[in-house]
Amino acid sequence: MTTNNKIFISGDEAVAQGVKLCRPHVIAAYPITPQTITVERLSEMVEAGEMEGIYMHVESEHSAISAAMGACAVGARTFTASSSQGLLYMAEGLHYCSGGRWPVVMMNANRSVALPWSIYGDQRDSLSLLDCGWIQVYVEDAQEALDMIIQAYKIAEHKDVLTPMMVNLDGFILTHTYELVAIPEQKMVDEFLPVFETPNKMSFEEPKNLGFSSKPDDNTEFKYQQNEAMFNAIDVIRDVDQEFAEKFGRKYYDMVEEYQCEDAEVVLVALGSVCGTIRVVVDKMRAEGKKVGLLKIRYMRPFPEAEVKNLARRVNAIGVIDKDISFGYEGTVYTNVNSAISKIDKYVYKSNFVGGLGGRDITKAEIEEMFDKLFFGVANKSEEKVEFFSLNVETND
Amino acid sequence: MTNLVDIPKVNAKNMTEKEFFYGHKACAGCGGSVAVRLALKVLGERTYTALPAGCMSAVGFIFPQMAFNTNALITTFPGAASMASGIAAGAKALGQKDVKTVVFAGDGGTADIGFQALSGMIDRNDDVLYICYDNEAYMNTGIQKSGLTPYGTKTTTTPAGENLPGSITHKKNMFEIIAAHDIAYAATASIGYPQDYLNKVNKAKHIKGATFIHVYASCPTGWGTPTETSIEIAKEAVDCGLIFLAEYEDGEYKLNRNPKEFASVKDYLKKQGRFKHLNDENIQCITEHRDKKWLRMRKNWL
């Protein structure tokens, strides 16, 4: 256990503090709202000599991820940060990075994507890039953001994983609000996170050609290995979280966190900061005798299939809140949750609530209404559906 | 800054016999592979090489057959310069000494899709030598027009017919665009003048910071020229004045060759399948463009 120094900082600043503690050799980032404060703080830390790493002023997000990969390819620990359009601009590099097995760590400030232009938060940026081969974790508050940066390096750099990792935090709701955050001691982080070492690097002792082409004879095997590495990450995530808890006294419940799910009849599933609001509603409804719960999904990749199935076996209804929409179908989180549930031998009533797009608040009243709809759906054997909640327009529903 | 006068010269006699780029699958007579091979002989073993999509990455890195004997990496297509910047930064942060990072990128990867990253790399003055091997089209994808394809070139996306003489734009002026960044050292070269090219690579090797060499490299496949004439045609391009040999150093331009008389533009063009269709009027247009360019260069750079 540690004597943590607590300071009052924003989520962006918490990320910067976490990055500093991990001693990256190279930081390459391009500013984009609402991520900017993170890169500003990091550049200040480099200026002040608090960090030894090199801060690269790259001219675009594409160059940010390219530079991070280049540095990682010689064995340097790297960090980058992005959001929204910037993350999408990196998309080519995201696939490249995971295929190259370079464990770059990135902070993504979840923000809506254009058009219409919006600087405010939803999760369409990262969720639309779910298939790019990065480990994706979603945090609920600034403390979790800082802690997950430290965990991210340990997970991503693990020899059985060697996969880049994206730490997602909701734009403005987390990036720009202030909280008391415990800052771990450098010495303890150094003990927890060893110096980055990887066989997958260019070196003068053993020169290598990286980033090569493969023929149809080999390509599937490379992709199989990449997929296996992602599954390997599940055990590593568990071990790292356990070790982190022992060292720093904060535990994040691995792939998911169940809240009041023990005897729950209906459960809402969500990612990120909205989980805080759902907890409050769960407490209120529990006080009224309603058996409701929250499943906070922390990792979208690798996906916590076992945990979702485990929960589905115990409840009557699962509602999924998606701050994203895959146009022409349903929310991406719902697709993933639904796929896991379909693999168990039991019927569970399901509903997908899409909303909070472009930064709109999701209120306690709306969440309570969602729980009520789930109870109603089970009792009345209603049709399962995908709905945009609290629309300001008339619909045919 | 390094005193470039004191740098020991490299030539065929004192150059290493080691090969750092062999066993590749380039076409017979490939000028780009000559440019890579010669440069690596000057740069030596402690070199990190970055290549974007293009002929040299396509022919050098087909798993499990790797053609680079030094550390090398295929980059994203737009990210050759930025990935090289990252390599240089990583090497510096890890305390590695006496290393050089070099990019070998084609004309499309340099003047078109990779231009932003290249500009950023020079702006930051990252310790990278960027070599553009210019074969005047996207040869790896089957001969399509790039920003460095000259006027009148027949490519698969600028077909020549009754209405158009092939490409209708002149080459983007990369050398001066790079110089305008106030880079410490930039040069043009041709594999037809190898000693000049070797000297320039050697100079760039000894400069800490961003440097740029634009080397003219023939492509028998794309140009419709016999494989055995690759060096000769790259030399003729310089002799007829369509390609010039120059340096930008300490804020000054310098012409390395200033021929009293140019060889025939028509002869140079007509030896190549890609220019076979050109009429006298087209050749006149190309010649006038050359003359204007030389007028400016002689006025300002001598």
From TrEMBL, chain A:
<protein>
    <submittedName>
        <fullName>Pyruvate ferredoxin oxidoreductase</fullName>
    </submittedName>
</protein>
<dbReference type="InterPro" id="IPR009014">
    <property type="entry name" value="Transketo_C/PFOR_II"/>
</dbReference>
<keyword id="KW-0670">Pyruvate</keyword>
<dbReference type="Pfam" id="PF17147">
    <property type="entry name" value="PFOR_II"/>
</dbReference>
<keyword id="KW-0560">Oxidoreductase</keyword>
<dbReference type="InterPro" id="IPR050722">
    <property type="entry name" value="Pyruvate:ferred/Flavod_OxRd"/>
</dbReference>
<dbReference type="InterPro" id="IPR002880">
    <property type="entry name" value="Pyrv_Fd/Flavodoxin_OxRdtase_N"/>
</dbReference>
<feature type="domain" description="Pyruvate flavodoxin/ferredoxin oxidoreductase pyrimidine binding">
    <location>
        <begin position="18"/>
        <end position="240"/>
    </location>
</feature>
<dbReference type="InterPro" id="IPR033412">
    <property type="entry name" value="PFOR_II"/>
</dbReference>
<feature type="domain" description="Pyruvate:ferredoxin oxidoreductase core">
    <location>
        <begin position="264"/>
        <end position="367"/>
    </location>
</feature>
<dbReference type="GO" id="GO:0019752">
    <property type="term" value="P:carboxylic acid metabolic process"/>
</dbReference>
<dbReference type="GO" id="GO:0006979">
    <property type="term" value="P:response to oxidative stress"/>
</dbReference>
<dbReference type="GO" id="GO:0016903">
    <property type="term" value="F:oxidoreductase activity, acting on the aldehyde or oxo group of donors"/>
</dbReference>
<dbReference type="InterPro" id="IPR029061">
    <property type="entry name" value="THDP-binding"/>
</dbReference>
<dbReference type="Pfam" id="PF01855">
    <property type="entry name" value="POR_N"/>
</dbReference>
UniProtKB/TrEMBL annotation, chain B:
<dbReference type="GO" id="GO:0030976">
    <property type="term" value="F:thiamine pyrophosphate binding"/>
</dbReference>
<feature type="domain" description="Thiamine pyrophosphate enzyme TPP-binding">
    <location>
        <begin position="54"/>
        <end position="215"/>
    </location>
</feature>
<dbReference type="InterPro" id="IPR051479">
    <property type="entry name" value="PorB-like"/>
</dbReference>
<dbReference type="GO" id="GO:0044281">
    <property type="term" value="P:small molecule metabolic process"/>
</dbReference>
<dbReference type="InterPro" id="IPR029061">
    <property type="entry name" value="THDP-binding"/>
</dbReference>
<protein>
    <submittedName>
        <fullName>2-ketoisovalerate ferredoxin oxidoreductase</fullName>
    </submittedName>
</protein>
<keyword id="KW-0560">Oxidoreductase</keyword>
<dbReference type="GO" id="GO:0016491">
    <property type="term" value="F:oxidoreductase activity"/>
</dbReference>
<dbReference type="Pfam" id="PF02775">
    <property type="entry name" value="TPP_enzyme_C"/>
</dbReference>
<dbReference type="InterPro" id="IPR011766">
    <property type="entry name" value="TPP_enzyme_TPP-bd"/>
</dbReference>
